[in-house]
Write a structure and sequence with these properties.
This protein is mainly beta. The chain is 3% helix and 39% strand. It has one helix and ten strands; from the N terminus they run ββαββββββββ.
C-alpha cells in the first residue's frame, strides 16, 4: 500500500466514445506519467497507458476488437482488461487503470490498476 489516495477524473460521457473507439486522455489531465487511453469495447470500458511498451505508438489509435487492442505501428496486441501481451513483437505488458461508469459518466482512476 502506498497510502496515496487516488481520485477519479471524469473523462467523457457514455456515448462520447463509440464502440470500437478510444479516447486519448493527455498526461496533463491525468497527472500520470503517460497519456492514458480509454477504450470502449462492446459496452465495456478499459484503460491502459497510451504509449505502447514496444515503441512510440499511441494505442488510442489502435484497432480494438474482442477485448484486445492492436498497436497501429507493429501490430502487437494487448488484453484490454489485464494489459497482457497477446502477440509479438511486444514483450512487456501494458499498465492498466481502473475505469468506472457512474450516472452515464466515465470516470478514470489513473494509477489504480484495473484489478485493484
Ligand atoms: Fe507497438 Fe511496436 S510500437 S508493437
Amino acid at each position: 500500500m502506498s497510502g496515496i489516495t487516488h481520485t477519479g477524473i471524469r473523462v467523457a460521457a457514455v456515448g462520447d466514445i463509440e464502440d470500437g473507439e478510444a479516447l486519448r486522455v493527455p498526461a496533463e489531465q491525468t497527472g500520470h506519467g503517460d497519456a492514458i487511453a480509454v477504450f470502449h469495447d462492446d459496452g465495456a470500458y478499459h484503460a491502459l497507458d497510451d504509449t505502447c511498451t514496444h515503441g512510440r505508438a499511441s494505442l488510442a489509435d489502435g484497432w480494438i476488437e474482442a477485448g484486445e487492442v492492436e498497436c497501429p505501428l507493429h501490430s502487437a496486441r494487448f488484453c484490454l482488461r489485464t494489459g497482457a501481451v497477446q502477440c509479438m513483437p511486444a514483450t512487456v505488458a501494458m499498465r492498466t487503470h481502473r475505469v468506472e461508469v457512474h450516472d452515464d459518466e466515465i470516470w478514470l482512476y489513473p494509477g489504480t490498476g484495473a484489478a485493484e
